[in-house]
Amino acid sequence: MRGVERGWSRPPASTEAEAVERTRMQVDRLCWTGILLGLAFTMTNVQSFAAAGAAMWSLAWWAAWLLDPMVSLVLLAVLRAEQVTARYGIRTGGWVRGAKWFTLAATYVMNTWEAFTDASAALVVLHSVPPLVVFVAAEAVTDLRDKLSEAARDMAVNADEQAEADIEPPANKRRVSFDEYLSRARSAWRPGMSVTPAWVRQVTGCSRGLSSRLASTLAAEVDGSEVHA
Predict the structure, then answer these.
(1) What tens digit of pLDDT does each residue of 10-23 get?
(2) Residues 6+ apart with CB under 8 A from 106
(3) Which of 19, 39, 204, 219 is the most exposed place for a label (fewest CB within 10 A)?
C-alpha cells in the first residue's frame, strides 16, 4: 500500500508544474502578439506624421516608413532584455528604463499628433488605445512571466523534494530548509566565483529545481556576481 501511495503522489505535482509552464508560455506569446499588433497599428500613423504631406512614392515618403520600425525595434530589444534580466533577479539601470519609456512616449506622441491637432476626441481615443495597450503590456509581460516562472519552479521544487523524501531512509528524512542550503552556498562562495545553479547543486547537494532560486538569491547578495543559466 505504501508503494501505491508513493506512485500516486508524484505525478500530480509534476503535471501541475507542467500546466503552469504551458500557461506561462501561452501568456508570454499572447502578450508579445498584442504588443506587436499594437506597434503595427501605429506604423501608418507614424509614417503619416513623418511624411508631413510629402508626395506619395517620393524619397521623403519612403523614408518616413523607417521611423516607426526604428523606434519599435529599440523598444522590443529593451523589453526582451528586461524579460531575461528579470528572470534572474538582475536589476537594469536607469538608462534602460529611460530608453523604454522614451520610445513608448515617442510612439504615442507621433501616433496621436494629427488627432490632437484636428481636435477630434474620437480620433484621439482611437489612436491612443493601441499605444496605451503597448504601454501596459510592456510593464505587465515581464512581471507575469516572472511570477508564472516562479510558480512553476516552486512546484518543481516541491515535486523534487517529495521524490527525494520518498526514496530516503527514515533516518534521513529531516528536510533541509532553503536557508540552510543558502548558508552552505554562502560558506562555499569566494570572490571571483561565478554563481550558477550547477555550482550551487555541487556545493550544497540541493535539488535541480531549488538550485535556480538559491543561485538567484546568492547572486543578489554577493557583489559583482552574475547568475548564468
Answers:
(1) 445 567 777 877 88
(2) 71
(3) 19
Q: Give the integer Cα–Cα distance in Å for 47 and 174.
A: 65
Which amino acid, 156?
A: A
Q: Average pLDDT in the 115-134 region?
A: 89
pTM summary value: 0.56
Distance CA 182, CA 218 (A): 7
> Helices in 118-229 by DSSP H: which ranges?
121-167, 178-188, 197-204, 208-221
Q: Is residue 175 left, alpha or beta, with left meaning phi > 0 and alpha meaning psi from -120 to 50?
A: beta
3-class SS of residue 227: strand
3-class SS string, 186-214: HHHCCCCCCECHHHHHHHHCCCHHHHHHH
Q: Considering only the C-alpha atoms of the chain, give the largest distance between any 2 of them, rounded to a whole number of Å.
A: 84
Let me know: does 201 contact 195? Beta carbons within 8 Å: no
Contacts of 202 (CB under 8 A, 6+ apart): none
